[in-house]
Amino acid sequence: MNCLTILIENYQKPLEAMFESAPPAASPSSSSASLTASLRRGGTTKRREGVYDVTLEDIKRVFYQLKVIHNFNSLLLSKLEERIESMTWTPSTHVGDIFVDMVRILFVEKLN
Fold first, then answer.
1. Domain locations in the chain?
2. In the prediction, which pLDDT does 35 show?
């Protein structure tokens, strides 16, 4: 879960925000401004001056469905933690019903 959160918070959101925010105040020679300008230009993915041109569509493809996966895993984790904390474990204790419910949720999500 932590790895998915790191991907979303440290990579996906900042990259998407670059396309929504105003141009940076830094000088064009700085690598941050160069990357931002490169990201905004869009176009091809050919290498130019040590920076790849990336489009918002490219970013969306790389991070496709990451938030859905994160939310699904968060829900699964919370259901499993709740079950573990609320039960006294015996050899007959089971958690299979949680997975069956999650498959139903996943199926409904797929239909949307």
1. 2-62, 66-111
2. 55
Of residues 104, 100, 112, the one with CA closest to residue 68:
112
Q: Is the pLDDT of residue 111 over 70?
A: no
pTM value is 0.62
User: Which residue in the block uniquely carries the two structure tokens 């050899």?
Assistant: 91
Average pLDDT score over the chain:
77
Strands (E) in the chain, as ranges, are 47-48, 51-52
CA dihedral 59, 62, 65, 68 (to 10 degrees): -80
CA–CA distance, 14 with 10 (Å, rounded to integer): 6
C-alpha to C-alpha distance for 11 and 98, rounded to whole angstroms: 31
